[in-house]
Design brief:
GO terms for molecular function: oxidoreductase activity. This protein is α/β, with parallel strands linked by helices. About 40% of the residues lie in helices and about 15% in strands. It has a single domain, classed as NADP-dependent oxidoreductase domain (TIM Barrel, Alpha-Beta Barrel). It contains ten helices and ten strands.
């Protein structure tokens, strides 16, 4: 059982990644974002996930710098992730995008850098750039986001380095069982974005029933379900009380029956684009 908010999984290259973190998708630059990240770090979060397309890396970087000072932490105690956007998927373009993200974040390195979407014909060159940055010691770990099994198989045919992480939409109505099994087989850590289905699951009667049994919120039950099956999770919130509540999942364990009840809610429903059919 995962013990606390700082508990980590070990990626296949030996880097330790927290099981739990905070995501900042669609949170605009500014004080609200800075305060949210600072609240998360103060409460014990050690993983922050952003992306170039979120257009908020500057505020994320500001929050990190202030939080390190205020909490007497070293940079090495945090795990910071960003992602290269579709328009920058090329060898030189991806390297330049990485430098731009570092500059906005005010950091010397990233713990994890991901290819945001599997744009056909472009992600292999981008991956070559990530491999080169990794070999140069500029990134601690490299991975992908929104890759399905066939994307991963295609990438790994030519890759020198296997992805360490695959971050995908993952929640009780999109359980992606085959993808999870594939990633586990190949030692690729699966990570869940939109684990709460953007709030659409909070009124689900089955989840409410399970939550009442444990004296927990529906959100806490879903996030516990993630980490209990070996999936890293990064729920988004800007409200300090919600940030604290989301992380309060390490003092209970779901039974096998309840895990299966949640698993049975799968309907292959997405709130985000289909990785095999997206246009941006």
């Amino acid at each position: 059982m995962t013990q606390n908010l700082q508990s980590t999984t070990t990626l296949h290259n030996g880097v330790r990644m927290p099981w739990f973190g905070i995501g900042v998708f669609k949170v605009e630059e500014g004080l609200e974002l800075v305060d949210a990240i600072k609240a998360a770090i103060k409460h014990g979060y050690r993983s922050i996930d952003t992306a170039a397309i979120y257009a908020n890396e500057t505020s994320v970087g500001q929050a990190i710098q202030e939080a390190l000072q205020e909490n007497n932490l070293s940079r090495e105690e945090l795990f910071v992730t960003s992602k290269v956007w579709n328009a920058d998927l090329g060898y030189e373009e991806t390297r330049a995008a990485y430098e731009a993200s570092l500059n906005k974040l005010g950091l010397d390195y990233l713990d994890l850098y991901l290819i945001h979407w599997p744009v056909q014909g472009k992600y292999k060159e981008a991956w070559r750039a990530l491999e080169s940055l990794y070999k140069e010691g500029r990134i601690k770990a490299i991975g992908v986001s929104n890759f399905q099994i066939h994307h991963l198989e295609d990438l790994m045919k030519d890759a020198e380095i296997k992805p360490m992480v695959n971050q995908v939409e993952f929640h009780p109505q999109l359980t992606q069982v085959e993808l999870l099994q594939f990633c586990q087989k190949h030692s690729i850590q699966l990570e869940a974005w939109s684990p709460l289905m953007q709030g659409q699951l909070l009124d689900h009667p089955v989840l409410q029933d399970i939550a009442s049994k444990y004296g927990k919120s529906v959100a806490q039950v879903i996030l516990r379900w993630d980490v209990q099956q070996g999936v890293v999770t990064i729920p988004k919130s800007t409200k300090p009380h919600r940030i604290i509540e989301n992380a309060d999942i390490f003092d209970f364990e779901l039974t096998r029956d309840d895990m299966e009840r949640i698993q049975a809610l799968n309907a292959n429903l997405r709130v985000g684009p289909d990785p095999d059919n997206f246009d941006f």
